Amino acid sequence: MTAPRKQDRDEVFVEFTKSICPVCKTPVDAQVNIREDKVYLRKRCREHGGFEALVYGDAEEYLASARFNKPGTIPLTFQTEVRDGCPSDCGLCPEHKQHACLGIIEVNTGCNLDCPICFADSGHQAGDGYSITHDQCARMLDAFVESEGEPEVVMFSGGEPTIHKHILDFIDLAQERPIRNVNLNTNGIRLATDRNFVAELGKRNQVPGRSVNVYLQFDGFDERTHREIRGRDLRRFKEKALANCADAGLTVTLVAAVERGLNEHELGAIIEYGVDHPAVRSVAFQPVTHSGRHVPFDPLNRLTNPDVIRLVGEQLPGWFQKGDFFPVPCCFPTCRSITYLLVDGEPGARTVVPIPRLLQVEDYLDYVSNRVMPDDGIREALEKLWSASAFMGTDTTEEQLRATAEALDCADACGIDLPEAVKSLGEKAFMIVVQDFQDPYTLNVKQLMKCCVEEITPDGRLIPFCAYNSVGYREQVREQMSGVPVADVVPNALPLADRLAPTPYGSRMLRPATDEETTA
Amino acid sequence: MSQPPPRDDVKACCAAAYSSDVVTLLLGDSYHPGGTALTRRLADALALRPDDGVLDVASGRGTTALLLAETYGVRVDGVDYSPANTALARGTAEAAGHADRVSFTTGDAERLPYPDGDFTALVCECALCTFPDKCRAAAEFARVLRPGGRVGITDVTADTDRLPAELTGLAARIACVADALPLAGYVDLLSAAGLRTLRTEPHDAALLRMIDQIEARLNLARMTAPDRLAAADIDLAAAPTVLAAARSAVADGVLGYALLIAEKPPAGRP
């Protein structure tokens, strides 16, 4: 008789952490494992069973990025206390590792669209949503200022913020405070149809020391992309909105929600379109956040940052190669990757220079082994560029682009005056951000504890964006603000399909048990 | 093609090019492929201990010397053929508050201005291939090391007989290409000087990265200051051909980058 043989596991165990049950949101232990060069997060809820999701499509880069983890900065105040532990005490609680690089204020739940994909579960649902008041907005901004001192950026979002009747007042409130930049996160319908409104934004963008920039939902060019993601063909609206922004001197970021099988083939075209449009200075790709409302998805085959970066490279092979994107050190480095391009010339005869090819970025942003670098301020410039608060159109980002270009130069020593030439470089610079927000499947408190993108709540808390969308905070705030009970949202994941039922907003919740099931 | 210039001309020319700002523009002030990550790997292999004396040959603007002093607690002497680099490196060391542990001298790698047996370790990054008399330089490395001391070298490797014509001119020579040796050639060179190679590692990817960096910086300069490039006699039209030739040479194994660690035999042993 042969002795039984021990078997090896088919995965490398790399982390023990905490997450939540995607169904009941109870904090549970979780483990991170590597299989076939991909990174997965696995967890088990006592009541709802086991769950697993792909969290990073490139294991080598997941491990390598650990050193690009900048020590956090402590905010001026915390809003909550440590009681039950992460992610139940948001926030920010004193255990949080980073200040808020970006604060988000959702001014309403109402929207002039009912997109099939909306992490905020917003739409036309009459009567049971909410809109914040002037006083509430002021208090939220004050909470942000109290925590940050001089915040770099506040983003107004929703719902659809441009349909809030006080949105311009809210921008004024932000500009009256020591908040340098305002970002308006919009589907663009009002920008396309109300030129006076765009002119009002343009006016506020001219306030000295302040800027207003537009974060425009822009998922692609195929009619199907629009219908599947937005429920409507919005192509003409997007075009008009961009033209109006260009006329008003507004800087725009094109923001694409990217979903497998829908628009993952359009990334290169979005970048090229942006590069050629006078209003557009950056593109943000966000794999669809499987919180709130979304189309059914397979958690084991979702898009992650390395997948998006790979697709971008495949679709613009003359522009990109491996290593052109670099992780952002202010948040957890696996959350966000950025590159900047310098683009010169017309289509067909273009020169494209990704900034990370000009210098060894990793020599400057390695916080584990590099204690000192004779760097002429390059590190500081790169830190501000590779940050969640970096937005094209803001003075800070433009200045740091200039500083980096100048630091690469030798104007002092060689007697040739480059700074003049470098001044025009800003207009040639183009930013590409890839951000994979966490959802109830992928949430890892290790990342969450260093999140630097915070939702500011009407009661003055700063809640990490991914906790807000995944742990149940969004539902709580909506219930408090609207006075209407809101069910806990559960991801519309294929493995859960037979356990889900629709909520009134189009998202999914756990199907109430039938009599038969409860008596069984 | 023009005749290779006489050796001293090359040396002066290399040093001039390395201290010139065109090279700074194209390669940054730490000229060697692999950046500080490879420097750190090299230093780790030298098993440095605090207060060891280390010589950095071709110390450029002092990046490596400062990294070694800061990270490993060693004392570092840097020697470079270019007085301008020496001055800049001194300034950097002072600014970083390390002037007491790091010093810089202008000098020739083939006639190192240090007594015999003065150093515990010696590093030479992407420079040996540019020295016209490499045997003499290697002998100097051996001379200034204590018995048991280690040499760490990173350098371009080249199978010179197979190098394409685009990579054999003076410009290529300055860019550490045309006068490089095959890996075995460096081992033989060190061996002839009495230095026993303990370890070699290929790092060809670092060279590809440097080629990318040169191309990106040429393009940046073309966008911002085309006149300057012309003034510096950089032939932009020829650049794509030379860069493409360099990339295929790396792919074909004709051109590469390597790390070598060698030891001067301890006293009492041959």
TrEMBL record, chain A:
UniProt entry keywords in alphabetical sequence: Iron, Iron-sulfur, Metal-binding, S-adenosyl-L-methionine
Molecular function, one GO term: catalytic activity
CDD domains referenced in this protein's UniProt entry, alphabetically: Radical_SAM (cd01335)
Record-linked InterPro entries: Aldolase_TIM, Methyltransferase_Class_D, rSAM, rSAM_sf, Zn_ribbon_HMPTM
Organism: Streptomyces chumphonensis
Stretches assigned to the Radical SAM core domain: 94-321
Pfam families in UniProt: Radical_SAM, Zn_ribbon_HMPTM
Name under which the protein is recorded: Radical SAM protein
From TrEMBL, chain B:
Leader sequence segment: none
InterPro entries associated with the record: Erg6_SMT_methyltransf (IPR050447), Methyltransf_25 (IPR041698), SAM-dependent_MTases_sf (IPR029063)
Residue span(s) of domain Methyltransferase: 54-149
Entry coiled-coil feature ranges: none
Keyword Transferase applies: yes
Keyword Ubl conjugation (UniProt): no
Gene Ontology annotations of biological process type: methylation
GO MF annotation, one: methyltransferase activity
Source organism superkingdom: Bacteria
Keywords in alphabetical order: Methyltransferase, Transferase
One of the Pfam families matching this protein, by short name: Methyltransf_25
PANTHER family referenced in this protein's UniProt entry, alphabetically: GERANYL DIPHOSPHATE 2-C-METHYLTRANSFERASE, ZGC:194242
Protein name according to UniProt: Methyltransferase domain-containing protein
Organism field: Streptomyces chumphonensis
